[in-house]
Every structure is written in C-alpha cells, then in structure tokens.
Amino acid sequence: MRTFESLSEREILALAISLEEDDERIYSDFADGLRENYAATAEMFEGMREEESGHRRRLIELFQARFGNHIPLLRRHDVRGFVQRKPVWLLRPLPLKIVREQAAAMELETRLFYERAAARSQDAGVRQLLNDLAQDERQHKERAEALERDTLPHDVREREDETSRRLFVLQIVQPGLAGLMDGSVSTLAPVFAAALATHKPWDAFLVGMAASIGAGISMGFAEALSDDGSLTGRGHPWLRGVVCGLMTTLGGVGHTLPFLIPDFRAAMTAAMLVVVLELGAITWIRNRYMETPIVSAALQVGLGGVLVFLTGILIGGS
Fold first, then answer.
1. pTM score > 0.85 for this model?
2. Which residues of the chain have pLDDT under 50?
3. What domains are there in the chain, each with its CATH number?
C-alpha cells in the first residue's frame, strides 16, 4: 500500500480520476436505489452524479495533455489514509438518512484530498485544476442544497421523510415490538411460577434464561419465515428475524436478571419493578411509533401483563 506523500503528480491525477469514477457510480447507485420510494431525492443524486462526471472529464483531459493516454490503475484502497466506506449503496431498500450522511462524508473526503493534492503539486496547470476542484467540492454542499431545494419542495421532502419513517416502522419497529411484547409478557408466567414454587432465586433465573432464549429463537425463526418481504415491503426476512429474536430475548432477560440477587424478597421486588418498566417501555413505543393513544396502549399492555403475571402467581403458589 502506497503513502500519499510517495505519489507522483501522474499518480495523483490517476487517483483523482479513480475517485471521481467511484463517486459517480455511487451517486448513480443512490439514485437507482431511491427511485422507487424517493423519486425526488433520486433526481437530486442524479444531478450530483452529472457533476462528478464533469470533474472526471476535466481530470482525464488534463492527464492526457500532460502524461498521455494510458492512465495507471490506482484505487483508494491502494493508498493509506482513506476511510473505508461501508457499501451502503448495495442495501435494498436504501435508508434515506444513511444515504444523505454518506453523501456528505464523501464530499468532505474528496475536498480534503484535492486540497492536499494541490499543495503537493509542482505543475501550475495541475495545481490550478486541483484547486478548482477543491473549490467545487467546497461549493458542492451549497449546490447539493440548491439541487435539494429545486427537486425537493418542502411538501415533497415531508412526504419522503414520512415514507422513510413508515418503512422504518414496518421493517424494524414492528418486528422488534412484537418480540419485546412476547419476551416481556410470555416469560412472566414461567419465571414467577418457578420463583414462587421453589423460593430459590437461582432456579427462577435458570428458568427465565431458558424461556427467554428459547422464545427468542422461536420468534426469530417465525418472523423470518413469515414472508420474504417482496410483496409486503417489510424488508429482508432475516433482518426482521434477528430484530424480533433479539428483542424477544431482551424482553425476557430483563425481569430474569434480578433473580441473581440471593435474597428471595429482594429479587422478587426488583423483578416486579423491572416488569413495570418493561411494560411502560412497550406502551411508549406503541404510542410513539404505532400512534396508539397512550391510555389505550397502557390498558392493552397492562391487561396482558397482569393476566400472564397472575397466571404465574397462581401456578407457582399452588
């Protein structure tokens, strides 16, 4: 791997051409990935792609004039100092917020590269072009904002943000909430039944961990195998399965951990407090993301929790 300081002007220009080609293709992928759900933002990235294409042509013309037609292959991963980019452009569906953040990071990195390259260049023509491109990148943010204003009127931006929110709810919040509710509520009965039947916190802890992990595995597979997301828009099935399974396990482990306390009464008191917090968290999520009225959400969640809790108490105390 080369250091930036070891590059010749010929290699710096070759690297700049490669960087512009990468950015052009990434913006093109952003546009393609966003077109179905965020048509206006896709148009914005298409405009940014055209700007990168113009930069690449100017660099190639200067390279040919100075060094001939053969451009050596030099990529960002061949030179130390570049940040490794996560290939978010390959995700489907593309997360709108992550795309915007990635685009901003790309513009900053490219500007810093041109500033360093111009400072090292000894050729007046090369230095001039690199300084011009650095200035272009400084103004790129303003141009991107102008493109956004032109292609994303306020009402369109609001609609796209709302679409992004709905996809997040559909693909992450819903399976996570289903898992959290299942783990927090369904494991109440076996955990508290075991605690009351044995009066041994460690036994209740083992039962709770087994129930939580088992429920997490079961719920994860059930969610992943329910549909492939191609028609429902619910996203990749295995992502939903992982989210659902982890949240199911988390919901059960929450009120199981207090049974690590050796004293039975203290463990029971702590576990019941955790249950109240868990049910409160579920109520908040339902109100925040599912738009369920807070009182209605609290009654629904509380009723289910109380019924399962009483089931555990009755069985454990019999």
1. no
2. 230-232
3. 4-152 (1.20.1260.10), 161-317 (no CATH)
